[in-house]
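Page 42, continued from yesterday. The earlier attempt failed because a stray header line got pasted into the input along with the sequence. Redoing it now with the clean sequence only.
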Amino acid sequence: MFKKYITLLFLTSIFMAGCQKTEIEDVFSKDAETRTNERLASFDTKLKSEELWLGTMYTETEETTVFFKMKFEDNKRSKVGFASKDITEAIESSYSLNYTQQEDLVFDTHSLMASIVDYGIKGDFRWALIEETDDYLLFKSRAEENIGKSYLRLEKYNEELYTTKSKIVNDTDISLFRNLELEGSETRYGFSYNLALSKAYFKYWNEEEERVVTKIIDASVTATDIILDEKIDIDGKAYSKFTYTDGEGFVSNENGQKATIRYSGYSPVPQTGANYVYGTTRTKLYFAVETADHKKHSNAYVQELINLMNKGINVSSILFFNSNKYGTYLRIKTDKGNVYINFTIENHELGRKVLVAKDPIPDIVKNLVAPLFSAEGIYFIEKGRYITGDGKRFTNNSVEIVSVSTPTFRVYAYAGGKP
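This time it went through. C-alpha cells are written below.
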C-alpha cells in the first residue's frame, strides 16, 4: 500500500512539473512587446472596472491635498473633475498607458491634471504605479526632480468616504495648527494626515532633547473614523481610533479620558521664526512686508489693502523695525505718507508673540494691522529663503506672520538689514 502512495505522488509531481513547464514556456514564447501590451491591457481593464474613482492627490512640496472624481472610458478617454462637483462637469481628455519598470498613467496636456500643474499647485499629469491592491491604486509623480514629490491614490468612489476625507485635510483658514489634545491636560501633539499614503503625523516637543519630534503612524480612514495601526500615547493614555463628531472634530474615548483631534489655534511646538528679528540689537535690522507680492499673503490681508485702495490710499510696505535709538515700531509706507506705530513685545507660550501698541493705532490703518495686535498674539512661522513675485531668490530668512485670533490673516515677510 505504501509503495502505491509513493508511485501516486511521483506521477502527480511529474504531471504538475509538466503543467508548470508548459505555462513557463507559454509565457516566454511571447516577445517582450506582446507581454507588455497584455499587461497594459489588463491594467486598462482595471481602470475601467470602476464606474467612478475617488482620486486623492497629495503634494509634499506644497503640502496640498486635492480630491478628484475620475472615470476611465473606452478609446483611452477619461473624465477628471474636482470631487466637490458632479462628474458631468468634469473635463474630458485622453490618457495613455506606458510600461517602464511599472505601469505609467499619463493624462494629456488638455486635462485637469495638467491644468493644475499650470496653476502652480505642484501636482503632475504623469504617474508611475507603485502599489496595487484590491482596494486602491497608488501612483507617484514622474516629475519629482523639478516639481517635488506628489502622490495620487485611486479608490472606488464613496460619497461618505470623500466627505470624511475632506474633513481630515488641514484647513488653514481655520487655523495653521491642528492638534491632538487630551481633556484636562496641557499636552498638545500637532496632527496632520497624508491621505494618499495613509500616514498620520504627530509632532511634539521633546523637553529632554530640546527638539521637535515627529512620529509617523500608518493609518486608515473609513466613512467615519481615523484608525491608527499603532496606538499613540499622550500623558500615559493610548489611543488608536478617532471618530468624527460634529462640532468637536475627531474624538476618542478609549481610556475614559477624551482625546480630540481639533483646531486649537495654538502651536504644539515652539515657533522660532522671530528670534533672528527681535532677538538682536542690530540697529537697522527690520522685517518687510511687501504688498507687491500679494500672492504670498492671505486673502483677508489683500482684501484690506483693496479697501484702502478704494479710499485712495495705496500701501507699498509694512516694516517692523528693531532700533536701539527709537525702539520697536512699525512703519507703514503709503502714497499719502508714512504711518508709525510704536509697540512693545510680550513673549508667550511656544513662541507666541503679543504686540502691544503704546498709543492708539491710527484709524487710517487700524483694520489693516488690527489682527497683528490681537491680545491672543501672533506666530512667526519660518519659511526659509525669500522669493520675490518675479522669481528672484534671496538668502534672507523669511516668515509667515499669522494672527492667532484671525488665522485667515497672514502676511509673508522677509528679514532685511537696512531701512
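Notes: Residues 1-17 have pLDDT under 50 and may be disordered.
Reminder to self: strip header lines before submitting.
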